[in-house]
Amino acid sequence: MKQRYTIGEVSQLLGVKPHVIRYWEEEVPFIAPKKSKTGRRIYTDRELQLLLRLKHLLYEKRFTIDGARERIWKERGASQADVTARIAALRSDLLSVWEKLKKNKG
C-alpha cells in the first residue's frame, strides 16, 4: 500500500470532496496530516484509515460528527502519539506562517 497521499487522492478514494476532508480535520483533531514545504497536505496510511473509519461512522452508521469523533477517540484510546502528531502539525503550521510573515516584512 502507498505510504503518502495528496488530498486529491484521498478525496477520490473516499468519494467525498476535498473541503469535506478539511472540515473533518478541523472537527477530529487526531486526523492531522503533515504539510509539504509548499503547504500541501500529505496523508499517511494511518490518516487514510482514520478517514475511512470516520466516513463509515458518518455515512453508514449515521453518527453525528461529535458522536463519530467520540467513538474513534474511545477506539483509539487517545494515545500520546495522536496528541504528539497534532502538536507537530500545529507547530509546522505556525512555522509556515512565521516564514511567510518574515518574507513579507523584509
Walkthrough of the structure:
This protein has 106 residues and is mainly alpha-helical. The protein has a single domain, classed as Multidrug-efflux Transporter Regulator, Chain: A, Domain 2 (Orthogonal Bundle). The chain has 5 helices and 3 strands; from the N terminus they run βααββααα. Strands 1-3-2 form a 3-stranded antiparallel β-sheet. The chain is globular. The N and C termini lie far apart (44 Å). The mean pLDDT is 88.
Which CATH architecture?
A: Orthogonal Bundle
**Total count of strands:** 3
* CATH topology description: Multidrug-efflux Transporter Regulator, Chain: A, Domain 2
Helices, by number, come to 5
Weakly predicted, low-confidence segments: none
Helix content: 55-70%
Shape: globular
The biggest sheet, with number of strands, parallel, antiparallel or mixed sense and barrel status, is: 3 strands, antiparallel
Strand content: 5-15%
Q: Over the alpha carbons, how many angstroms does the gyration radius reach? A: 15 Å
The secondary-structure element order is EHHEEHHH
What's this entry about, in short?
It is built from five helices and three strands; from the N terminus they run E-H-H-E-E-H-H-H.
Can you tag this structure with a few keywords?
Multidrug-efflux Transporter Regulator, Chain: A, Domain 2, 68% helix, mainly alpha, three-stranded antiparallel β-sheet
List the helices and strands and how they pair.
Layout: E1 4-5, H1 7-14, H2 18-27, E2 34-35, E3 41-44, H3 45-60, H4 65-76, H5 80-105
Antiparallel strand pairs: 1-3, 2-3
Helix pairs in contact: 3-4
